[in-house]
Write a sequence for this structure.
């Protein structure tokens, strides 16, 4: 009760707003309002299976993939993710990661995940943005599941162009050779969960997974908040 009163007082002094609809949050709402959360479109299991087969299976790098929501253009989730990435609202990432962890905790246990790694940003991109949004999503998953988080295991040492308008082949060529593992002993024999915000073609996740396998990781799995529908 005291916590609720404190939250209400702080909301009166410094009101919080939902990144999805810009409406004021109530004292009982965390980060995203209930209405916007209800409008987020879950990814159906059959679609996850299809996307895994299309984008990962033949490469034999990613052993399993999950995603929670469909990333729809000009809808609530796009506003939420953009607020995370471009408005420096990192608590959104932690919130989304916690929800992802709660939803798929049983799957992570089945996969025997013992290390979580966020897909890294190049240091120039990180300096421009101020932080790596995937780190906060991964942190939320780690808090919920208790699985170890390692933010230094993989480094993105080559700057790559924005991939928004690229084809799959162009993305693969753009991201090739962009990552390296800093200390192989940190990943050797581990079942790694790679975490990113939105998955489009899977090229970045596959390339990051490739260097982890080459460094001695046992299996690589991937989790994203959203799956692009375009």
């Amino acid at each position: 009760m005291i916590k609720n009163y404190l939250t209400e007082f702080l909301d009166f002094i410094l009101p919080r707003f939902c990144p999805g609809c810009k409406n004021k949050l109530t004292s009982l709402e965390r980060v995203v309002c209930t209405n916007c959360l209800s409008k987020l479109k879950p990814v159906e299991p059959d679609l996850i299976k299809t996307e895994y087969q299309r984008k990962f299976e033949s490469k034999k790098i990613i052993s399993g993939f999950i995603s929670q929501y469909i990333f729809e253009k000009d809808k609530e989730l796009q506003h939420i993710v953009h607020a995370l990435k471009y408005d420096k609202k990192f608590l959104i990432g932690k919130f989304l990661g916690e929800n992802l962890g709660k939803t798929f905790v049983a799957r992570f246990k089945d996969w025997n995940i013992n290390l979580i790694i966020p897909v890294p940003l190049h240091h120039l991109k990180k300096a421009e943005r101020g932080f790596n949004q995937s780190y906060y999503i991964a942190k939320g998953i780690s808090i919920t599941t208790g699985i170890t988080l390692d933010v230094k295991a993989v480094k993105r040492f080559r700057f790559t162009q924005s991939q928004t308008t690229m084809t799959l082949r162009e993305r693969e060529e753009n991201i090739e050779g962009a990552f390296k593992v800093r200390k192989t002993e940190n990943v050797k024999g581990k079942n790694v969960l790679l975490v990113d915000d939105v998955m489009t073609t899977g090229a970045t996740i596959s390339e990051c997974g490739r260097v982890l396998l080459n460094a001695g990781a046992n299996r690589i799995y991937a989790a994203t908040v959203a799956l692009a529908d375009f």
Q: What stands out?
A: Residues 97 and 188 are 25 Å apart (CA to CA). The radius of gyration is 18 Å. The beta strands are 62-71, 115-118, 154-156, 179-181, 191-199, 219-228. Residues 1-39 form one domain.
